[in-house]
Structure formats: C-alpha cells, structure tokens
Amino acid sequence: MALAVDLVEDSPYRFRIPPRAPMRVPGVVFASRDLLADAEQSLEQVANVATLPGIVGASYAMPDVHWGYGFPIGGVAATDVAQGGVVSPGGVGFDISCGVRLLAADADGRQFQPALPAVMDGLDRAVPRGAGPGGVWRLTGPGQLERILYGGSRYAVEEGHGEERDLIRCEDGGAVGDADAAQVSARARERGLAQVGSLGSANHFLEVQQVAEVYDETVAAAFGLFLGQVCVMIHCGSRGLGHQICTDHVRAMDRAMARYGITVPDRQLACTPVDSPQGRDYLGAMAAAANYGRANRQLLSHAARGVFRRAAGTRLSLVYDVSHNLAKIETHEVGGRRRRLCVHRKGATRAFPPGHPELPADVREFGQPVLIPGTMGTASYVLTGVPGGDAFFSTCHGAGRVLSRHRAARTVTGRELRARLEASGIAVRPKSWRGLAEETPEAYKDVSAVVAASEGAGLCRTVARLVPLGVVKG
DNA sequence: ATGTGC
C-alpha cells in the first residue's frame, strides 16, 4: 500500500516529506524542482523506507532519485543496530557493489589522440561484456572463487593483476573483512564462476575519457588528475552472482519477517534485524559480492592497462574505486550520541569528509574521491566529500534514467547513435546495437544538473569534469 | 542490474 506524499521545500535543494504514520522519520529529498518532475513514485518509495524498524535521522533521496526495487535508486537509509534496526537487500539493490573505478594515464589527450583507434580496438578485444558468461579470468576451480569472495581485488593483485597502489586507492583497501562465503548459494556461485572480469550490460561501461575542466586544482592534483589528462572509467558490478544473492536473501527475509513482528508497506522492502540470523547471513553474502565486484573491476583495470601499454605506451594509475550499491556498518553521531548504524546506500555514493580516518593518507586532508559516471555523449564527474555529514556522508551516483529502455530504443537505432557519437569525436565499440540504443544520452537526466544539485545541497564539492573519447559497452 | 519471466 502506497502512502500519499507531501513535499515541503525547506531550503534550496532540500525538500522534506513530513512523517505520517506509519513513517518513523521524515523523508528528506535533495534535489531541484526540475529534477523531481515525474518523481512521484520514487517519493512514495522514500516515504515507505521511512517506516522501517530502527531507521534514524531520515529516509534520504539524492538528486538522481528514481524508481527502484522497494527502495528508490538514489536512496540512503540508516538503521540503529542496537535498537532492532533492520537490513534490507532492497536497500542495496540487485547489483550488489555496483561501482566506479577511475584510472589516470600519464598522457594528455593531444599526445594520446593518434593511438586512440588502436587502443579502442584493443579494448574491444580485451573487455568481455554483454549478458551471460565470459570473463578475463577462467577460474581453475571453486577454491579460486572462494578466494575472490574473501579477498576481493586484494586477491587479484596478489595473483599479479595489479599493483599495491590499487589497494590503497580502493574503498576498504580492496576487500571488506566480514564476507561469509557460506551464505553464497550454489546457484550464485555457478553464475559467478564464468563472469569474473566482465563488464555486463545496460548502463555499465568502460570509457576512455579526458579531463575537460578542473574546478579545484589542489584537490585534483592530490587525486592524481590534471587538465587534458587521459583517463579510464570503469562502471560495473557483481554480475549474476550479486543478482542471485539478492534474490536468495529477499526470499529468506520475506519468509522470516513475520517472526520478528515486522510489517512493511511494500513486500519488496523485505528485511530482518541486522542482529538476526537472516540479517547476518545477508550481510555476509553481500560482503562476499562486494569483494567479487572489486575483483571484477580490478581485473578489467589490468586488462585495460595491458592494452594501453601495448597500443599507446601509456601507464594507468588508480585514482579511486568506490561502490554505490552497498550497506555498511558505520558509526555516526545521531541525536548527540555515537551509534552503530547499518547505512544502506542504493544508487548513492559514500562521500567521506576531509580528515576521515578511513581515507587513504595521501588524499585524507581533501576528502574522499567520488566518481560519477555520466552518459555516453555528455560527461562524468569527480567530486569530493565535504564536512557536514548530512545523509551519513552520501551523495549522488549518476545521471538517473528518465526514458524506459523500450522508449529509448524507439528514439534512435544503435547504428545512428554510433554515427552521431563518432561524428562528435567519440569512438564507440558496442557489443549489441540494441543495447547501445537503450543507452542513448536522451534516456538520462542531465548529469551536470544532478551534480549541481548535490553540491548545492551541501553533499559534496565538484573537482573535475571528464568527457568521453571512446566508449566500450555491452 | 539480470541466463531481460514465475
């Protein structure tokens, strides 16, 4: 049953949904009026999330909010573990640990341009993508998958697929420590086995980009970025493995929920207390998928490095790797007290402020790098976290879809879109024409407006804008 | 997002 939603503008870029039973906290939506056009369904989802047991602060929505499974995409919700706070797989999403990695080349666009076609052809061959099986790693046995589930990109680097800096500049040092592979079903393992080091499809991509604008030179330099520089951005997740884990644990929680006296306004919000067998099982499986997602991005980085070295004589250094679909146990101050919270970020990026102890030492004083993938014809952004801590140090994650895949594919054919992009100087290596058409830039909100609203709401600060030179897609 | 459906 959906709740009717009132929206009160508290300040520019900040709207509030007053709590009405059974909401336990208000909804807080960071956006402009323009960005909220047609957002009614997702605002109902923000209100639904506010009913969850143990939720603290507010049910938050980022400026790229749109409708999702149970929780809106662009949603942030934290629950107090000691107060019966719940964890919900719908608050993470099907693509557990979907995230973005940015690598910076030791070359600028002018030097690099002659090598671009050969690099794109090399990436076309080296990057497994599209639906179904295929990955850069052919696993030697189930033991190796187990090591990925525990070791994440740390394991990939140990096996020679990366360098030490890759771990320093990756969220959680390349692996989360609380994975429990025993909670990853046989079916999830089977799906994951043949997809290690693959991009997937839909909005996932690998792009060669160029830094088109720098808004803060000091912070950009600390992150390893300069104007004109060539970069590689990778956006992908945990493929069929994460999807199956979500499916399995939603079912388990749906069955167990009544035992804890929990009722939710939407069955897709299935949840149990963090401190329950089902809650712990899900968080263990989710952490294993998080590690799989990092290993996935690490292996694709290594494949891209090989191509850049051979075709352009260029090195790639990791700027940062951050997930935007994850729940984390974090300590935050709420109502004057430090509390242990389960922070769900679904289509929302963690954005730790300057000085946060979990940040790598060489960027700590500048805040956490936040990576925002845009759409093919437009731009992507690098942001940084700011002091303040609203929404538990979180910000937006991307442009946000406005046209359905079906409607998008009716506006343009894949071949037309490639011709248009190539004419504007962007090389395109699609696997599927249909998949390319579904990702036409018109299908998305203006990523610049999303970033401006996020900064205007005090969630982050803009560091650099990147534009695509070449796109590799499923 | 996804062996694009339960």
UniProtKB/TrEMBL annotation:
Cofactor(s) demanded: Mn(2+)
Name of the protein in question: tRNA-splicing ligase RtcB
EC number: 6.5.1.-
Record-stated family: Belongs to the RtcB family.
Lineage top rank: taxon: Bacteria
Assembly and oligomerization: Monomer.
Organism: Streptomyces bullii
The reaction(s) this protein catalyses: a 3'-end 3'-phospho-ribonucleotide-RNA + a 5'-end dephospho-ribonucleoside-RNA + GTP = a ribonucleotidyl-ribonucleotide-RNA + GMP + diphosphate
Keywords associated with the record: GTP-binding, Ligase, Manganese, Metal-binding, Nucleotide-binding, RNA repair
Residues making up the signal peptide according to the UniProt record: none
GO MF, any single term: RNA ligase (GTP) activity
Pfam families cross-referenced by the UniProt entry: RtcB (PF01139)
Cofactor note: Binds 2 manganese ions per subunit.
